Amino acid sequence: MTYSFVDSRLQGLLDPEAEALMLANPIASDMDVMRTQLWPGLVRTLQHNRNRQQRARCGCSRLARRLRRRSRRAPGGAPATTAIAGLMVDGPLVPEQWDAVRREADFFDVKADVEALLATADPGRFRFEAAQHPALHPAQRRASLRRWRAGLGWLGRAPSARSQPRMDLDRAPILFELELAALVPTRLPSYRPVSRFPAIRRDLAVIVDESTSAQALIDAVHAAAPEYLRDIVRVRRVPGPRDRFRSKKSRFRLDFTGVIAHSYRR
Asked: What is the pTM of this model?
């Protein structure tokens, strides 16, 4: 069980741009403001486990409401509430064992979990874009989750104790937050007939400028591809030729349904 009250100092680190609602009579010194996001509670849960020698993977999720002041000009009145989902992952990707090399869960592992969550809500509408967030590590990967140019959430790595001593964490966890309204309405699964023709898989390799994002390349492929394109996956990224210092080579796997095989035969 957790509370809607959090530590103002921790919330100031994770959400410095939001104006929190102060409590007149807090029940504890570290529960003196109403939360403006779920990250302070998730980080506090991680601190509690780490302080009790829980060194295995720690993953916490939460569905709750955040409370923010409606307007700085009107400090009174009821706060604005928004239902959000929060996720925090820290530690190894798999439990310690002899058959797998120990590897810490990273940005892309949590991004895959988020994409699985969005799979029932028309994933084609969502985009991950590189962006700056005051609470996320400036030297690590971080992204804003957007739909139709509207920001819906954030994904990135929190600062560790080395870069932010007040976080009191020996390792930096991966944090994610999303407005629940983005998941409604969901897209119900529907039956698709199985094609009588075999599927087709093609590889596409391109050399582009280093500043070109993978999402921009995927959008360009979707815009030019026929309706038979089922999936596109980026499988490799290598530096470009030596004579082009600011270039990179990306290879994609394109999967087409069996319908296109019939059109090829024609």
From this structure: 0.76
